[in-house]
């Protein structure tokens, strides 16, 4: 059987996020199955282009869903030999649920997630992919196509895991040459080509209604109520752009708008600083939560451990 090379492998942003979340929340190394479909790109060769085209190179594998049992060696043994009965049961149940809820989904391959290890396929992963190619559980409509897609996820070998960082690569297992061929992985819904999908976006956190004219009034007879109003407006503005003076908002409206570039950049800089501060607080809280989870896990292990008589 001839290998049908993929031009690239695509996966939607939500699917990749869900997969990485499942990997990050697992207690250790995990693996699972990948589902999707294979399509052929429409050739766009011009009439005056004499470049020969290979129709087999126009195939694109699209990953739409996955199945992760949250345990390693879920459908194969430690030597990489696939359990055909377990694999058939997992594939049948997953494809049945997918086909009943949405468009048809076919078995494309599998993924492996390891921690603190080099991002290259291991011998066991090679044996698993080779075993899958021999099972000939082909996708519907593609009788010459084996489940040859392989995604590899790893975490950095060095460094503290204060926040989750994952590296990933995509491969296609070539049956004839018996090797992994690296493939480009494209993420849908990310990039300028997909900006049209977010045309209906509208922010739900507008600026509070501020009377800037009262804040710009420097008359000596400014009463106490007006000063309290300015102070209240300043506190509301500090919630989104800490350190930006409420009086400078008047420069962003009216006749002074022409020369308001510096003020507008200053406003954005303060807002980004506020977001950066919040991000650092979230990172610190995540580290504390991870530390508490590890502590609780040790306590549960200590309680569950049998007491010697």
Describe this structure in words.
With 309 residues, the chain is of the alpha/beta class. The protein has 2 domains: 6-43 and 54-193, Cytidine Deaminase, domain 2 (3-Layer(aba) Sandwich); 212-304, no CATH class. Helix content is 35%, strand content 19%. The chain is built from 6 helices and 8 strands, in the order E-H-E-E-H-E-H-E-E-E-E-H-H-H. Strands 7-6-5-4-2-3-1-8 form an 8-stranded mixed β-sheet. A hairpin with a 4-residue loop joins strand 6 (167-174) and strand 7 (179-183). The model is unreliable at 137-144 (pLDDT under 50).
Map the helices and strands.
Elements: E1 6-12, H1 13-24, E2 30-40, E3 59-67, H2 84-101, E4 106-113, H3 123-135, E5 149-154, E6 167-174, E7 179-183, E8 185-188, H4 212-216, H5 224-238, H6 261-304
Nutshell version of this structure?
With 309 residues, the chain is of the alpha/beta class. 35% of the residues lie in helices and 19% in strands.
Q: H/E series, N to C?
A: EHEEHEHEEEEHHH
What is the number of domains?
A: 2
| Gross CATH architecture of the largest domain | 3-Layer(aba) Sandwich
Mean pLDDT: 76
Number of strands: 8
CATH fold-level assignment of the largest domain: Cytidine Deaminase, domain 2
Instruction: Return residue spans where pLDDT drops below 50 for at least 5 consecutive residues.
Output: 137-144
Strand content: 15-25%
The CATH fourth-level homologous superfamily of the largest domain:
Cytidine Deaminase, domain 2
Distance between the termini: 63 Å
- Global shape: extended
Instruction: Please give the largest β-sheet.
Output: 8 strands, mixed
Cα radius of gyration in angstroms: 28 Å
Tally of alpha and pi helices: 6
- CATH class membership of the largest domain: Alpha Beta
Backbone structural class: alpha/beta
Instruction: State the helical fraction.
Output: 25-40%
Strand order in the sheet with the most strands? 7-6-5-4-2-3-1-8
Organism: Salix viminalis
GO molecular function: polyubiquitin modification-dependent protein binding
Keywords: Coiled coil
Protein name: MPN domain-containing protein
């Amino acid at each position: 059987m001839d290998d049908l090379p993929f031009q690239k492998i695509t996966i939607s942003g939500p699917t990749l996020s869900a997969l990485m979340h499942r990997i990050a929340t697992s207690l250790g190394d995990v693996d699972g199955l990948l589902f999707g479909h294979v399509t052929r790109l429409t050739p766009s060769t011009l009439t005056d282009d004499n470049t020969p085209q290979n129709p087999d190179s126009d195939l694109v594998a699209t990953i739409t869903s996955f199945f992760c049992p949250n345990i390693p060696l879920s459908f194969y043994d430690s030597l990489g030999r696939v359990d055909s009965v377990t694999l058939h049961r997992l594939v049948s149940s997953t494809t049945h649920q997918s086909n009943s809820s949405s468009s048809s989904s076919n078995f494309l391959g599998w993924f492996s997630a390891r921690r603190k290890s080099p991002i290259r396929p291991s011998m066991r992963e090679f044996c698993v992919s080779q075993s899958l190619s021999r099972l000939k559980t082909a996708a519907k409509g593609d009788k010459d196509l084996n489940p040859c897609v392989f995604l590899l996820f790893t975490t950095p070998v060095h460094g503290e895991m204060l926040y989750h960082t994952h590296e990933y690569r995509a491969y296609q297992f070539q049956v004839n040459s018996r090797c992994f061929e690296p493939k480009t992985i494209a993420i849908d819904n990310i990039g300028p080509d997909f900006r049209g999908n977010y045309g209906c976006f509208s922010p739900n956190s507008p600026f509070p209604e501020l009377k800037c004219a009262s804040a710009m009034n420097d008359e000596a007879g400014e009463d106490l109520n007006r000063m309290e109003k300015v102070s209240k407006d300043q506190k509301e503005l500090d919630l989104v752009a800490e350190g930006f003076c409420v009086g400078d908002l008047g420069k962003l409206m009216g006749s002074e708008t022409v020369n308001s570039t510096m003020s507008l950049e200053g406003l954005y800089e303060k807002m980004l600083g506020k977001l950066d501060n919040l991000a650092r607080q979230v990172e610190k809280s995540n580290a504390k939560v991870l530390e508490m989870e590890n502590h609780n896990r040790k306590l549960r292990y200590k309680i569950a451990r049998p007491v010697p008589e």
